[in-house]
Write a structure and sequence with these properties.
Length: about 200
């Protein structure tokens, strides 16, 4: 099937997984086509930054790199522009982004966390478009329980919604002998409910 919006297949089916009564994850397999060239361009042209966190009383490097595209940069690329337009129309919100996360190899990872820097977590939409190697995207309830693991490959789109940020953690575990991967992430919050303190857990 040929993509219907340039490099994007607008009609690719959406698979929804309900994590609980109020939290869900959508996955769209093959949402973006011909992603290799975009992946290489992002690797070589984005101004990647190495963030650090304090752990055990000392600063350590995050096991990944972060980057941003300015709005005009993203809008000039049909893959990012059409992704934003389709997300905004499908979920009836205005998402901000994309923020970029670069996992250079299988040793890079993202521990279980909430995107609590958004502060208002009662009703959010967070979407990620994947480039590069296939890796598991995992979620676990804050109250504990089994881990939900979803393999996300190049061109796949995943979207967390509802109370997912309020009641669930998500992360990307280490994966031996894995190639590089980039996630382009868009986010929206309704700003409803009681705000939380960023990085409160």
């Amino acid at each position: 099937m040929m993509p219907t919006h340039g490099p994007i297949d607008r009609k690719a089916p959406v698979e929804r997984t309900w994590l609980d009564e109020h939290s869900w994850v959508d996955v769209v397999r093959g949402f973006a086509h011909d992603t290799d060239a975009t992946f290489e361009r992002l690797v070589n042209e984005v101004a990647w930054t190495q963030n650090r966190q304090i752990r055990g009383g000392r600063k350590v490097d995050d096991p990944r790199l972060d980057g941003m595209l300015r709005f005009e940069q993203a809008e000039a690329d049909p893959m990012f522009r059409f992704t934003r337009l389709i997300l905004d129309a499908r979920y009836r919100v205005k998402l901000a982004g994309p923020h970029l996360v670069y996992y250079r190899n299988g040793r890079d990872s993202m521990g279980f966390h909430r995107d609590d820097e958004m502060r208002w977590l009662d009703n959010t939409v967070i979407a990620g478009l994947a480039f590069g190697a296939t890796r598991p995207f995992q979620l676990v309830a804050r109250a504990g329980g089994d881990v939900t693991s979803i393999d996300v490959g190049a061109g796949d789109l995943y979207v967390m919604g509802g109370r997912c940020q309020a009641d669930w953690y998500h992360g990307v575990p280490k994966l031996p002998q894995c190639g590089p991967k980039i996630s382009a992430v868009w986010r929206w919050t309704s700003r409803q409910g009681r705000p939380v303190e960023p990085y409160a857990g």
